Amino acid sequence: MATRQRNTARALRQDDSGPEPTPRPVVAVQQSISETDDAVEFRSGEALMAFDADLRVTAWNEAAESLTGVAADGVIGRFCWEVLCATDERGGIECHAGCSNARLAREGWPVPTRDLWIRTSNGKKRVSITTVAVRGGEGPQFLHLMRNGQDSAGGLDQPGKPPPPPLTARQREILGLLADGVPAKVIASRLHLSETTIRNHIRGILTQLGSHSQLEAVAKARRLGILDA
Prior knowledge:
Layout: H1 2-16, H2 26-38, E1 47-52, E2 57-60, H3 62-68, H4 80-84, H5 100-106, E3 114-120, E4 123-134, E5 141-148, H6 169-179, H7 184-191, H8 195-209, H9 214-223
Antiparallel strand pairs: 1-2, 1-5, 3-4, 4-5
Helix pairs in contact: 6-8, 6-9, 7-8, 8-9
């Protein structure tokens, strides 16, 4: 009996020193959840293109493929301006490496919806583009929501002069002074405002008119009837 008990005890000690059961991969699951939480997914019924602060495309949905005839594989990772090659109604280049709309969006300024011609597999197509800035995650992301010009509010493909963009009374006043060749510093003195405030108004004017310079803004304002020719 004593020998049997010793053998039983020895067997129990051997079982205790054996390999432990494989633990559940808790850490791996947590990492997977963390990566999922950090990932940003954009969903929209409209054609959507997302790009980062370097202007490289990070998302291109099925609606964008349908609108342009260009597959996502040929877009992701490229510069947004290379993909769209957008121009205005007079053929002026809007998408380029120094895009003012992208710069304004990066600086936190609201960018108005623009009616532009973009490159597609069947040539140029007129679309309405709305820009949205998304903050958070590893870095800022920017979205272009694109609507077919024929379906956009206001009938982009209808003949007639487009309505002028909304400018405040102060912006119109400053725009008129710019048209007369008055520099920002002098405008600030005349209106008893700081030069920083005047330059902020000028940025807002450029944004509303979709222009890259004060000269371009003045010329466009005259074409739209905002200023007397």
